[in-house]
Amino acid sequence: MQYDVIVIGSGPGGYVAAIRCAQLGLKTAIIEKYNTLGGTCLNVGCIPSKALLDSSEHYHNAAHAFEGHGIKVGNLKVDFGQMIKRKEEVVAANTSGIAFLMKKNKIDVHTGVGSFKDKNTIIVTKADGAAEELTTKNVIIATGSKPSSLPFIKIDKKRIITSTEALSLNEIPKHLVLIGGGVIGLELGSVYARLGTKVSVIEFMDSIIPTMDKALGRELQRVLKKLGMEFYLGHKVTGATVKGKEVTVTFDDPKGEKGELKGDYCLVAVGRVAYTDGLGLDKIGLTVEERGRKITVDQHLETSVKGVYAIGDVIKGAMLAHKAEDEGALVAEIIAGQKPHIDYNLIPGVVYTWPEVAAVGQTEEQLKAANVKYKTGSFPFRASGRARASGDLDGFVKVLADAATDEILGVHMIGPRAADMIAEAVVAMEYRASAEDISRMSHAHPTYTEAMREACLAATENRAIHM
Q: What string of DSSP letters covers 128-140?
């Protein structure tokens, strides 16, 4: 079978690349080793975790917030089996939707492990060992990533688990010891904390969500403590062992003194590593970076082998589904002869706790390190009429703008619906708007997005109206 493009991997980057290629008139195939399409994101990542986050938030609100609204709920309890079942139904609906899109766009789907025979020939090895060869002019590697671990910890997938297993437990943990205070760990930790689990977070850095603006980490930690989550920052994990149904995690504290925590589950959430196993990259002369197993690409996301591209988690940059999607569309358009672009500074990051955390552009720490003169404006949701009406009073919006030109350089928010609100900041920064530009745009009242306008007013000669 001869194709213009073969995409290896059907996650957000892969399936978007395939659809865009097909839209541009390229004969396209996609290879997926699992029986369902969608990759990590749809099967064991973004989508199932959001389903559980929503379910657990509903329960938490019923238990702790409804009464304040005049709603009395008696004999409240969690049907955890139904919660997991609903999550699986959400996943099934989304993955079947991707299968439909493949048919709609006349994209051939090949199930099996794709590997290079040479740069124009891909071998698809099926589960039963049978193999077929496909030929192509171009290949897009979109094989994603898998959870990483610490070299001295053995993941048994029963008591010492990754995010994959955390999405399908058959019971609510009594005490979850969470190694890693990043996005994935905190999202899953908050799911179980809302359901009554004691959650202890051990983080090597001195802040949770350490890659984001420090102010966001401080506020999120304050809010999560109200859920009962406890934090051990600046602690270095040294081991994790299982005895029966108990996990013991050992660590060194900031002073170098040894300590331990015992729980019935340990979730290892220390990041992800690119998945490039079995691709046969050596057959075409490609190697991966020793740390992270990333594939090197140029500004067009093409590898050193002409006609072979790589996108998403297997190349440098943030491991985000929407980054992979943008890269998939970009490569498709490059293959078709167009000249698209991506501004990596303007790819937003989101943490789907509640309140949500979202950011785009430069952090205050980055601006200081680069000696950029800037000004800042903040607005707390406690001063928002819409947030007060809904009871979502935690968090703020912070805007960083150039001191001389007033151009917005970064927006950092923690609060209700921040994941949706950050889009306004992305649009503004794509068009190089100033803080004053946003402050002069009408925002519907009462809405959460008024906080964005107020933060821009605060950055513009400290002109916030409602604080």
A: TS-EEEEEEEEEE
